[in-house]
Amino acid sequence: MKYKFETNFLIFPKDLNPTNHIIFGGKFMAELDIAAASAVRQVLKHSICDTAVTYKMDVTFLGPSYLGDTIHITAEVIELRVKAVGIKVLAYREPKNQKNEDNFNLVATANFVFVTKLGEEYTPHGLVMEE
User: Fold this and answer.
1) Residue 98 has what pLDDT?
2) Distance in angstroms (rounded) separating the CA atoms of residues 25 and 17
3) Fewer CB within 10 Å of terminal CB in the chain, N or C?
């Protein structure tokens, strides 16, 4: 079972907060949510459930990100409850002019809880974390 999902996105002008020219927080949170949902989707391939919805999230922004930066995101399943999946998300900033590929800055952390569904009903997923 795949527990980790990785993705990235590039910050475009439309993603910026016009007052300070850093990424708009809502855009950043949406990207974190998409990554977390993708990790849940991978896990639910092994379940009777056909979907999950975001129940709650706790995001901490640790630094700004700017136009042209690439944001690298990892989302990992950290907990399986009866009808819920816990996800830990980390976001790293790669500045647009950076030469060293190994020197990314951690700019956000998040914890998500998704509840699992079959059709319109909240449903136990029946999954167990592998060691």
Assistant:
1) 76
2) 8
3) C
Rounded CA separation 128/82 (Å) = 9
Does the domain at 4-122 match CATH 3.40.50.150? Answer given as no
The mean predicted confidence, pLDDT, of the chain is: 94
Q: Give tens-digit pLDDT for 73-106.
A: 999 999 999 999 999 999 999 998 877 667 789 9
| Tokens 């795949």 found at | 2
DSSP secondary structure of 33-75: HHHHHHHHHHHHTTSS--EEEEEEEEEEE-S--BTT-EEEEEE
Contact criterion met (CB below 8 Å) for 9 and 33: no
**Residues making up the chain, counted from first to last:** 131
